Amino acid sequence: MSNANQTKKTAKFTAPGLKDKAADETIKLLDDRLVALIDLQLTLKHIHWNVVGPNFIGVHEMLDPQVDSVREMTDTIAERIATLGGVPNGTPKYLVDRRRWDDYSLGRALVKDHLVALDKVYDGVNSDHRAALEKLADLDPVSEDMLTGQLAELEQYQWFVRAHLESASGELKR
């Protein structure tokens, strides 16, 4: 089965009351979110391993709960894809082939450098989650609700990151 076929509904069923066309479109949106969240999970762990400098331990310890939470989000999305009759795919080649963004470029780096870069990663993930939500509103309210809850958590994680970059007057120091 080619990568393109794996984003389509392959089962002869979907969730009761959901039309096949809506299920197909929902699966495509969820597949994109699955790829993004697996990438985010790996990026967060990469930062966890490679962050150094002042405030190292606070950032190092802040990231593991985010990794765990994002991992749960990916599982929820993958199971929703399967529920709708699709085939969730999380293989490394599939992820790389489906990514629409550049790879995270920092290796070992200072806290501030990683947090500035991570804030940009969250900008992309959270913006794309919002865009998917707009489309899901007309397709599948269950998937919309699922992503709404995830976005609330993702935005809170970005706030945690930004709290390290914010001045007392509320400006982001990038």
Give an overview of the whole structure.
- By secondary structure, the chain is mainly alpha-helical.
- The protein has one domain (14-165): Ferritin, core subunit, four-helix bundle (Ferritin), CATH 1.20.1260.
- The protein is 69% helix and 2% strand.
- It is built from five helices and two strands, in the order H-E-H-H-E-H-H.
- It has helices at 20-50, 56-83, 92-98, 111-139, 141-165, and strands spanning 51-52, 109-110.
- A two-stranded parallel sheet has the order 1-2.
- The radius of gyration is 17 Å and the shape is elongated.
- This is DNA polymerase sliding clamp subunit.
- One of its GO terms (molecular function) is ferric iron binding.
Short description:
By secondary structure, the protein is mostly helical. The chain has helices at 20-50, 56-83, 92-98, 111-139, 141-165, and strands spanning 51-52, 109-110.
Instruction: Write down the overall mean pLDDT.
Output: 93
Structural class comes to mainly alpha
Give unreliable regions as ranges: 1-5
Tally of separate domains: 1
Helix count from the secondary structure assignment:
5
Query: The biggest beta sheet, please?
Result: 2 strands, parallel
Radius of gyration: 17 Å
Question: Strand order, biggest sheet?
Answer: 1-2
Q: How big a fraction of the residues is strand? A: under 5%
CA-to-CA gap between the ends?
44 Å
Element string (H = helix, E = strand): HEHHEHH
For the record, the CATH class is Mainly Alpha
Which range best describes the helical content: under 10%, 10-25%, 25-40%, 40-55%, 55-70% or over 70%? 55-70%
Shape: elongated
| Assigned CATH architecture | Up-down Bundle
Q: What is the number of strand segments?
A: 2
The H-level CATH homologous superfamily, spelled out, is Ferritin, core subunit, four-helix bundle
Family: Belongs to the Dps family.
GO molecular function: ferric iron binding; oxidoreductase activity, acting on metal ions
Organism: Pseudidiomarina salinarum
Domain Ferritin/DPS: 27-167
